[in-house]
Design brief:
The complex is a heterodimer of chains A (about 140) and B (about 375). Chain A is built from two helices and seven strands. Chain A is mostly beta strands and about 140 residues long. The longest helix of chain A is centred in the first third of the chain and has 7 residues, at about 15-20. Chain A is globular and about 45 Å long. Chain B is α/β, with parallel strands linked by helices and about 375 residues long. Chain B has 13 helices and eleven strands. Chain B has a nine-stranded mixed β-sheet. Chain B has a two-stranded antiparallel sheet with strand order 5-6. The radius of gyration of chain B is 19 Å and the shape is globular. Chain B starts with a strand and ends with a strand. The chains are: A mainly beta (about 140), B alpha/beta (about 375). At the A-B interface, strand 3, helix 2, strand 4, strand 5 and strand 7 of A face helix 3, helix 4, helix 5 and strand 5 of B. Strand 3 of chain A pairs antiparallel with strand 5 (about 200-205) of chain B.
């Protein structure tokens, strides 16, 4: 496992992208399929070569979610209830991403269209998700 | 063909939420009982395997560590005890050890980390690839195993129509089983569907009674070759098959192609092949039941029901004590105690010996035992009388 292949935490292209309100994810430099999370070896072509980073649209479909009411971590307890989701990104070669849903009121439905909300929490940039307004979804 | 091995001794402490004694002292007690059960002297143990959270030295009160030729600490969470069984077999096959001890001791309930930093350190040390957890999951509040299992449970619900009542059937059957097992932490406290449904939400769709117990205690078992086992006092229980498995992308469940793949199917296929059995030939199952939904998913991966059919399968009573394939007759992690699955192995051994008293399953001759840990690591054993 090489340091150049696994993204460093601080200053990574992904985090820098979020800070600039852009969703930047890695692809395989060899076969150009999604390699997110950044794996040391591409699950599509097997190459262990370098990653490339591409911008993706912060749009997708709600895959699954959980609303957290109790959590043992004291710093998170003050945020409850909060809703964690997994979003299948549109046009991103199957890449999925975790985030929080900012407006989970009402019944959430699998497959619902969601749009990214760039924000910050505890001093770091994060990408949360909002149910897309009817009529504005692509 | 690897040498045939058998489990020849099992032992535990009493289980409680608050033991008041050290984890090392608990280990000493459970290991001593396992050695007594096997009829082995402490100096006979020359291989020791434990799970992350313990070190082999925690066994030093019960065995002579100077006699030990092989040591291991397995870091696969709930898959560790069966991974240890697989490793023990390899040592015995290679004559690297003669009698291998596997144990787990913990003050799981009374020594939960209390500060945020201690909690984070605990989680980061327990999970694989802490850098991924820190960068892409922790900022969204996904910090505990329940968050991962809740996301999978919701997926199972909307993909297959699984209901809270069906999850409740898992919880209630485990509690019912614990009422026949005086060693269980919930003995004397049965659960009704009304109580289950009124359980407070923790990480929806998982509620209070979908979650395993927190326990203080210890459990241990001893493995040796079949030839040596026949010289010992307890009826040996054969390891007919044991195998590890992993889900695709084992440390990245978010991008796992099939979100519901636990790796249990891969391990079970290998273990069944070794044991030359079909899942329909099993008499009972000991399933790693950290959460009710995890039982449903594994019933499918074990091949006991069709994919997506586990909810009705359980609700129809098929997995109940008197059902066609009883699951966790001791009450499991949900209702007996959480010993990381060592107690699942021990229960299987006693069932196959026919020594379970009020919770003995009739005709128990072949059992499957499962373990699941971290975010995608599995192990399955087939044990036979």
């Amino acid at each position: 496992m090489s340091a150049q292949i696994i993204a460093p935490l601080v200053g990574s292209e992904h985090e820098e992208g979020l800070r600039a309100q852009r969703l930047v994810l890695p692809i395989c430099g060899t076969c150009r399929s999604s390699r997110w999370y950044p794996e040391a070896r591409c699950s599509s072509c097997g190459a262990a070569g370098a990653l490339e980073w591409v911008e993706r649209q912060p749009r997708g479909r709600l895959l699954t979610w959980t609303t957290v009411h109790e959590v043992a971590l004291p710093t998170l307890a003050s945020r409850t209830p909060y809703t964690i989701c997994v979003v299948a990104l549109d046009g991103a070669d199957g890449a999925r991403i975790m985030g929080d849903i900012v407006n989970p009121a009402g019944a959430l439905l699998a497959g619902a269209a969601v749009v990214g909300v760039f924000t910050a929490r505890d001093g770091r940039p994060v990408l949360d998700w909002s149910l897309a307004e009817r009529g504005t979804a692509p | 063909m690897t040498r045939d091995v058998a489990i020849v001794g099992v032992g535990e402490t009493a289980y409680a939420r608050e033991s008041g004694v050290s984890s090392t002292q608990l280990a000493t007690e459970a290991i001593t009982r396992a050695l007594e059960d096997a009829g082995l002297e402490p100096a006979a143990i020359d291989g020791v395997i434990t799970a992350h959270g313990n070190t082999p030295d925690d066994a030093s009160g019960a065995i002579d560590l100077t006699q030990v030729r092989q040591l291991r600490t397995v870091h696969r969470g709930g898959a560790s005890p069966l991974t240890a069984l697989s490793e023990a077999r390899a040592w015995l096959d290679a004559d690297e050890a003669r009698h291998v001890l596997v144990f787990r001791s913990r003050n799981g309930a009374s020594q939960m980390p209390s500060s945020s930093q201690a909690f984070l350190d605990h989680v980061l040390e327990a999970f694989p690839r802490p850098e991924q957890r820190l960068a892409w999951e922790f900022p969204y509040g996904a910090v505990a195993p329940i968050h991962f299992f809740a996301l999978l449970c919701r997926e199972h619900m909307h993909r297959y129509g699984t209901t809270r009542e069906q999850l409740g059937a898992v919880a209630i059957q485990h509690r019912d089983n614990a009422q026949r097992n005086p060693a269980a932490q919930t003995h004397g406290r049965p659960l009704t569907l009304e109580q289950y449904l009124a359980g407070r939400p923790i990480s929806e769709p998982l509620h209070r009674y979908d979650c395993c117990l927190q326990s203080d205690g210890a459990a241990a078992f001893v493995v040796t070759t079949v030839e040596r086992a026949r010289q010992l006092k307890a009826p040996p229980v054969m390891v007919a098959g044991v195998a590890v498995g992993a889900a695709e992308r084992p440390s990245d469940y978010v991008n796992r192609p099939d979100l519901l793949d636990l790796g249990i199917r891969a391990a079970a296929t290998r273990a069944y092949t070794e044991a030359r059995i079909q899942p329909q030939e099993l008499d009972l199952c000991l399933i790693y039941d950290a959460f009710t939904s995890l039982v449903l998913q594994q019933l499918e991966e074990l091949g006991l029901c069709e994919r997506g059919a586990s909810g009705p399968f359980v609700a129809d009573g098929r997995t109940a004590f008197d059902g066609s394939i009883p699951v966790n007759p001791h009450g499991g992690l949900l209702a007996e105690a959480h010993m990381l699955g060592v107690s699942h192995v021990n229960e299987a051994v006693r069932q196959l010996r026919g020594h379970c008293g009020d919770h003995q399953v009739n005709g128990a001759e072949v059992a499957a035992v499962t373990g699941f840990g971290n975010l995608g690591e599995a192990a399955v054993a087939v044990l036979a009388a």
